[in-house]
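Two proteins follow. First one:
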Amino acid sequence: MTISNTRPITPELIAAHGLKPDEYERILGLIGREPTFTELGIFSAMWNEHCSYKSSKKWLKTLPTTGDVVIQGPGENAGVVDIGDGDCVVFKMESHNHPSFIEPYQGAATGVGGILRDVFTMGARPIAAMNALRFGAPDHPKTRHLVSGVVAGVGGYGNSFGVPTVGGEVEFDARYNGNILVNAFAAGLARTDAIFYSKAEGVGLPVVYLGAKTGRDGVGGATMASAEFDETIEEKRPTVQVGDPFTEKCLLEACLELMQTGAVIAIQDMGAAGLTCSAVEMGAKGDLGIELDLDTVPVREERMTAYEMMLSESQERMLMVLKPEKEEEAKAIFVKWGLDFAIVGKTTDDLRFRILHQGEEVANLPIKELGDEAPEYDRPWTPAKTPSPLGPSDIPQADIADALLALVGSANESSRRWVFEQYDTLIQGNSLQLPGGDAGVVRVEGHETKALAFSSDVTPRYVEADPFEGGKQAVAECWRNITATGALPLAATDNLNFGNPEKPEIMSQLVHAIKGIGEACRALDFPIVSGNVSLYNETHGQAILPTPTIAGVGLLSDWSAMARIRFAAEGEAILLAGAPGSWGTHLGQSIYLRDLHGRSDGAPPPVDLAHEKTVGDFVRGLIRKGIATAVHDLSSGGLALGLAEMAMASGIGATVNQLNDVDPIPVFFGEDQGRYLVTVSEDDLDAVFEAARDVGIFCPWIGRTGGDAVVLGEARPVPVAALKEAHEGWFPAFMDGGKAA
């Protein structure tokens, strides 16, 4: 045995590996002896929350994951959805939260690299990326440093690799002060008859290591990602991986070329837990054993132990089961691309996971128990709480024009141009909509009319107030943003970011959010085909806001009929499709209350899913018929902010009708769901009203486009130029020394 394998297994060492005493007893029962140090590391990697989903698996099983267009749901590197003509879209979202807080540039960069590998491991060429970022309060001393590092890391990796960043989110809240969120999304295109999976098949076949060499970076990263932060956070820096986008680009091209040779039986990205997780998953899925000889693994550091090699999360690596007769052809491809190609093991028929190092067997474990039978917990959770609604007389007043200017120039509603201009949004030449609209849109390469729409959404303040309604709303808003381009929403991926699930109140958030997500996905025919759960997002016991991010994909059959948020012309009618009788009513948990009055009270807006579906289908029909000239969904900030965003995008003003005997605050700043602003030619109004009556929705004509200001009822006009100045000014000022904080 190596020196590392003789280390005594103490209670302190077990705890340091994130294993509870009862889990260690389960290990002893499974293997009938004390594990070696390497085996302890392997169990730690496979049974941590990040890899095993042991706290969430019970509830994830309740989500809808199938549908008419779903080719592959959860359980593979990414989900796969049919888009017709023999093509499919492959996509997934994953978190890199803890690494990005510890080392923001590399944490974010390797988050992008990992999600891209998940996509091209399936045989897809990546065509789009998004990221959902959440940082602490702007005045927190670390926030500016973290924003700068994360944005640079996302851009540095994605831009160098050559994939356009087409959308995402950036938000600030003090609840993320000690634990930021970096959720990375990628999508790629593949042929439906050329999808590659990770299930190993065949006995005695070579297991091949592909890509970059193994180093000590990222050792224990998955275990670190499954623990709360405390004062030892700086000691965790070595658990963050280091990425190289140029190597990853070579790996992409080599893998896609290799896949065309017919050599690949199974292939798996080396992500969390590196060589351990990839080998175990491939073997367990195929009901096969795996034997690895670590002396054949390409390394870039001397005297690496078996423990370090098995738990390293060095980037840009793949593991593959290969057809033996194709070995030389496959090797030649990787040599050509300057990458390592090494046979490091073989498949076996004994369902064991064997590791050899320096001539000694340092691990011999049951592979199914490692891969499929990790602990699964039904953790206790508290009943759902029903928040008290905001009283009708409890509406703080403000000058409408001043309130609008304050919101468009606030930390969370200001322009994200400072961020997305650091990303390459046009590379590959297929981007049809850039960040700043409702959804990013990318042409389908090789097809004359098809395009794909992508959006990422969640409103954490809603989820905290009412996890069930907040979960529904996250799905509905993503579906609505995709619909607002004219695309038909196809499927979604989720990234469930929560605190410590061992606390019943946190587990309750997770349970009820998943229930809400499931109900919305079923009602909107929007299945979850892939995803990630990130728990223990806490520092010193302070949890983040519950943040179940939903990213979705939709299909435009003809992108020439696509809608945008900018007003198309002056003198057009503005309609509020899906409006309640008084246009807007709901101020509970609104940004009007939070950002202008320092209040976070009331219930979040309820989500009527049947209404969402009816209104969305109606609006999509107007877009496809060429009647709608501009479309924008309404969410945070309500009608006032939605109109301002359309005006700023176009430079054209808008005037909204005056109100009679109605409090204008909930009308203009209420966040009622299921609504879209739609502009049409006045010549088309009768046809639109008739269509709205036919499906039973309210679609009032509320105003006209034109002029150089936004006029909300009786409020004073707000020049579009003033809106733009406030909107564009906050982020650059904040990053230039924090002047805006």
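Second one, unrelated to the first:
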Amino acid sequence: MSTVPSRAGRPGLSRAAGAVRSQLGDPILRRVVAVVLLGSGLATMVILGLSEHGSVLRGLGVPTALLLPGLTVLTCLAEMTVVRLRHGEAVEELSLYEVALIIDVLLLSPRDALIAAAGGLMFASGLQRRPVVKALFNVGTYTAATSVLIIIVHLVAGTPGVMTLHVLVGVVVATIAFTMVNLFCLAQILGVINSQPPWLIVRSEARLSGYMAIGTVATGLTTTEIALHAPLLLPFMAMPALAVTYAYRAAAREAEERSRSGCLLQLSHALAEREDVVRHFVVLVREAFGADLAVVMLENDDVALSVEDDAPGSLRHGPIPPHLAGLRRIDGPVDLSEDLPAGLRRMVVVPIQGGGRRFGTAAFAVHRRDRGWMTTGDISLLASLASALAVAMRGAEHLDRLVDETSKLQAVVEQSAEGIMVIDGDGLVQMWSRALAEMTGIDAADAVGRAVTDVLDVPVEDEQMLLMPVSVAQPKAVSELTVRRPDGEQRRLRLAHSANFTLAALVRDVVVISDLTREYRTERLKSDFIAMVSHELRTPLTPIIGYVDLLRKRGERMTPQKRLDALNLIGDRAGHLSRLVEDLLLASRFGDNPDDISLHVSSAAHDLCALVTQAARDLGSARVRVDLPQMPVSAHCDAGRTLQVLANLIGNGLKYSAEDTEVRVGLRFDETRVHVDVRDQGYGIPTDQLDKVFEKFHRVEDPMTMSTSGTGLGLFIARRLARAMDGDVSVVSTLNTGSVFTLSLTYGELRPE
């Protein structure tokens, strides 16, 4: 594994980055190369421009041959005094490198100070096994910053040999410049890693870096002066250094806890929402504990979900590595440091289990040898988080099943032909199904949340059956009532109640509603049909039976004319009865679908004027007035069926109009059809009945109180016959004025001019 810098230098601190894979993006590589070149150029300036300068302070009494390696070792040790501080996906390493650097610059010549600073840094990088890219970045950054520090100190202070005001000012200014160079180089890398503009990082860190620069100056100058004038006190200088290191570590722990708390808070929200919990667990727990690798292996699944430091925001799905497969047998939290896969130095493994069920295993590992990476308390916390994940996964499974069952129930409710309504204990509607909305003409949006008695328009005496037909003793009940829709139509409904009670109080009443309107109408039609047919059959049968009995008993004594009249009447009534039966049989041949034309007709070109004249003549009524063209009008039709339709229309006009009024029959034309209009001066037909008069057995009059005869089949048969001939029958009517029934047929071979 390799690393790149994420932070590279607050004053008094050495900064380096968190680990990522060696396959680095071009932006980071370009910045590393630029920093290395900058450091090399500034170092060359120091060596060439200040080659004749000696040390700023003198008097230590140690030969240069011993002082240079000694300070190099001191610089190396200062760099290895590391306190790690995580910033999101980057890691900041804090050390005492800058304090040692000031001592090097003050006690060594510019060339030797540069060698001690760079040499100590490289030795520390080698001992810490830092990746090449990270080591190059640190060497380049500190070489550039150290060169600036050396140049400023020597230009401002010179080499007086003792502490002067110029030396103090030079060190302060040089340290601030060192900090700015270091912070600028660091911001370039951090900007790429955290996707932020570098200037934002510089602005946010500048104040703290300035404060720490002052602390670095104070520590470095004080240590140097004590070494020059009171070397016996040098051991006591370790105490401030240790105090600073402890303060850094306390700040790092506090920052780490804040970062961890933020990650765990996000994790708690994710587990509570139960959405994609495994991914959130792997990503957030890895970030919270600073792991380089996080893996989750689910039970009964050969796929591992992992996040590594080269792609911290993406979850990888892949086969379980063979060297990790054995971890699935671990039953409790385990901290491993031996026999780990190559590149891993420490791994913590916890089972994901809860509620008596195991869901999988989670493993978190780091590449570095860090004894303080996870404490016993951290491992216990991680085990608790794994248990919380198991609970969330179990809850997610239950939620999925609940959503699935709910969706099934919702589908049943929405697709059910029966209406479904749920009423709470206060009589308010909680649910209103689609089928119920169609029955009542009231949408769910207008019903839910309102009192059911306010939603449905029912008679006052039916409100009790609607609201509370159930009781604790009888929680299920069936009732029937009539509901008036907003459009005025009445519907007969059956309500099947199923109620739940708690302590004698109604909690919920689930009502399944069936529409009985069609059944009631069917029963009414059956009753009406029986009454109507009985009446129509009895009308011709009564005179037939009477005259047959008369002829049987007194026929020999009746005059020939009376016998002939009786026989003619019997024949006429028998013909009427035959036509009635024929109508019934013909109606039975048609389906209920208005577009169903199952009757065979023999269509040809016929003179429609002749057919109208014949139909009027056959009826033998002086009330019929025919207004026809003088020339023939050819129509495409079946002559016999057309006579039947015309006789029905003209006969209806005579039947439903007063005896002293006329029925007028005329022809009119348009581009494609010829129309026969039969106009009467009868009662008229209500607007809502205009389409229904063509339905089977429909009568505008109540069959129990009707004043005219008929089965209600004439217009039904007339329209079906007309449509079978590629024509139609329509009606226009005005109450108390009369009606106009129109037979429309297509032209035959000839059209009138």
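SUMMARY FIELD: Residues 376-415 form the longest helix (40 residues). Residues 416-515 form a domain with the Beta-Lactamase fold (CATH 3.30.450.20).
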